[in-house]
Amino acid sequence: MRKLTAMIVASTLALSSASFAFAAETTATPATDATQGKMLHHKGPQHMNPFAGLNLTEQQKTQMKEIMKDSGARPDRAAMKAQMDQMHNLVATDSFDEAKVKAQIDTITKAQSDRMLDRARAENKMYNLLTPEQKKQFNENYQQRATKMEHMRDHKPGQEKSATAE
Length: 166
Fold this sequence. Notes:
mainly alpha, 7 helices, 66% helix
């Protein structure tokens, strides 16, 4: 169970490393070929950027870029990798040192928490630049993404949903 918890925390940290990926681009860019279009559809700026598709003005785009620039340093990928490697070393050993693992988990979660707080602070400032109509669309987009994620989480490949209860 402890190993599972450690791996979940480690995985979460790895997945959160892209949390500021949307900073460089505040609006979706049109695809120039079919391959790019596919990439944008699945994992491009629209996927990572909660402000995509809001028809931002040039002034809003400029202000959002400034907010992101001022929101703190980008995640240090080398440091995150070192944290993950340290966790791996603690897990892949013959004897389990719970105190060291807890300390490493605390280090990882503190760094992740700090990044999430910085991102939330920046996103709030950016949200408050939006017009009422854009805010409405932003919230509708959030609900759509949440519904889609819920559907994806509930869907298990190779398993069809049964119409009858067992």
